Amino acid sequence: MIYSFQGHIPVVHPSSFVHPLAAVTGNVIIGKDCYIGPGAAIRGDWGEIVLEDGVNVQENCTVHMFPGKSIRLKSGAHVGHGAVIHGANLGANCLIGMNSVIMDDAQIGDECIVGAMSFVKAESSFEARSLIVGNPAKKIKEVSDEMIAWKTAGTRLYQQLPADCHQSLKEVEPLTELPENRPEQKDFYQTLKSYQRDHG
């Protein structure tokens, strides 16, 4: 669902994937290898929204702002399920946890991790590699090399997902019973705790 608004037509690189149940409106620029999940709303009706290469905005996320603002999600930014980005700028290779809210004019530095369900107040600013949690959100420590390696590996999966969707995602009628040859799915990613256990 791609909509023009007051003469602005979204620009989406062909390597990116915008799910048909997402809504992208107006002055939005989406770079290479980005994934936009179903239910996501990226509203460039009142200002410009730029997603640099390799960004993912997952299911049921909202990206919007007050009139006259422009915001940027830098390369590799990872926006988890249900998060709201309202007028905030996200640094490169950062992680915004599920159901977090990042408010107007907040600045999230490169390689920051925002914990799930955190509330980042308007005009907050966090330096690179901050681990940010809570309501209101505060920096509790530095993001370790191990944590950012885990995050980066997870984001690579989402950077591969657009190509996988272009290749294999299609609308179908559901089966009425399990087939004998139902394909198995691989276990190819770990939680942070299991990653730390194996790499510690």
TrEMBL record:
<protein>
    <submittedName>
        <fullName>Gamma carbonic anhydrase family protein</fullName>
    </submittedName>
</protein>
<dbReference type="InterPro" id="IPR011004">
    <property type="entry name" value="Trimer_LpxA-like_sf"/>
</dbReference>
<dbReference type="InterPro" id="IPR001451">
    <property type="entry name" value="Hexapep"/>
</dbReference>
<dbReference type="Pfam" id="PF00132">
    <property type="entry name" value="Hexapep"/>
</dbReference>
<dbReference type="InterPro" id="IPR050484">
    <property type="entry name" value="Transf_Hexapept/Carb_Anhydrase"/>
</dbReference>
